[in-house]
Amino acid sequence: MSVLSTPFDASAGAAAARRAAPAAPSARAAAAAGPALEALGVAKSFLSGAVRVQVLQQLSVAVCPGELTLISGPSGCGKSTLLSLLSGLQSPDAGRVRALGEDLGRMDRRRLERFRLHHTGFVFQGFNLFPALTAVEQVQLPLGYLGLSDRQSEERARQVLDEVGMGHRAESRPAQLSGGEKQRIAIARALAKEPQLLFADEPTSALDADNGQRVVDILHRIARTHGTTVLCVSHDPRLVRHADRVLTMEDGAIRSDWRQPAPESAGPAARRPTVPPSDSDPEDFSR
Ligand SMILES: Nc1ncnc2c1ncn2[C@@H]1O[C@H](COP(=O)(O)OP(=O)(O)OP(=O)(O)O)[C@@H](O)[C@H]1O
Ligand SMILES: [Mg+2]
């Protein structure tokens, strides 16, 4: 069974995960009705010594469900900061962030952690694997928190490792793997939960051409076949080619918003260009 082309709902493991995730149905329904992710007039600054550096100011953006959206822009312009706000890793100083229709700022820490566990996956440039765990154990780990038994989580972990072409390295530890192999395991770990939202920060930048291409293909396939919303920070031209939409950031604001042209068969609404959202009304949730 292909885990990237067959919904996990068919498995007993998914049923267990759903039982442990009472928030899921409302979040799914909300996601179907509007954007998967929204930043509404968000601001974020950091203290650098005695100086406060304003990284994001009055930034608004809406990310459509089931699309592969790319954020690119020069180093230091705030891409990773925006990703961390939209994924709930950090909270904004001002403004609001909504994910799957829920306001992340209104959740207490526990609820936010649960939301992130059940609905989001994250792939980092540096892989973030545990040195002592084998590949299959890395992928199993979050599934244990979702309430799957060891047998269920191992079965699912092996399926997803097969899907990213790493089934034969299931017993290997990170020190025995190349960068590209580690990244595919990190993707498998994020995917095994079958999240509705997948965040990836420069997932190909540490990889050679072949391994980068494999990761690009996997991310593309996830959005296409699962309907997962994939938000990815990347400069990789291969990812740009596969993206439904490319947002370009500069100095903490979104400067351009390019969308893959819709097929001629689509209606005029689908072909309407998207509006650069950086200076728009923060109360407008409609984009
Ligand atoms: N925790 C932090 N503390 C202090 N400054 C920070 C922190 N996180 C980010 N910054 C600063 O915020 C700015 C934006 O950082 P961010 O990581 O979002 O940039 P980026 O666009 O992802 O850059 P890159 O392409 O190099 O990864 C940078 O000047 C950075 O130094
Ligand atoms: Mg970054």
Task: Describe this entry's structure for a reader.
The protein is an alpha/beta fold. It has helices spanning 12-19, 24-33, 79-86, 109-119, 135-145, 150-163, 179-192, 209-226, 237-242, 268-271, and strands at 37-48, 51-63, 68-72, 94-99, 102-103, 120-123, 197-201, 229-233, 245-250, 253-259. The strands form 2 sheets. A 6-stranded mixed sheet has the order 6-7-8-3-9-10. A 4-stranded antiparallel sheet has the order 2-1-4-5. A hairpin with a 2-residue loop joins β9 (245-250) and β10. α5 (135-145) crosses α6 (150-163) and α6 packs across α7. The longest helix has 18 residues, at 209-226. It is globular and about 45 Å long. Residues 1-31 and 269-287 have low confidence and may be disordered. The structure holds adenosine-5'-triphosphate (ATP) and magnesium ion. The site of adenosine-5'-triphosphate (ATP) has 11 residues, from β1, β2 and α3. Adenosine-5'-triphosphate binds next to β1, β2 and α3.
What spatial form do the alpha-carbon principal axes imply?
globular
Low-pLDDT stretches: 1-31, 269-287
| Gyration radius over CA | 19 Å
Helix percent reads 25-40%
- Alpha-beta classification: alpha/beta
E-strand count: 10
Distance between the termini: 37 Å
Written as H for each helix and E for each strand, in order along the chain, the element string is: HHEEEHEEHEHHHEHEHEEH
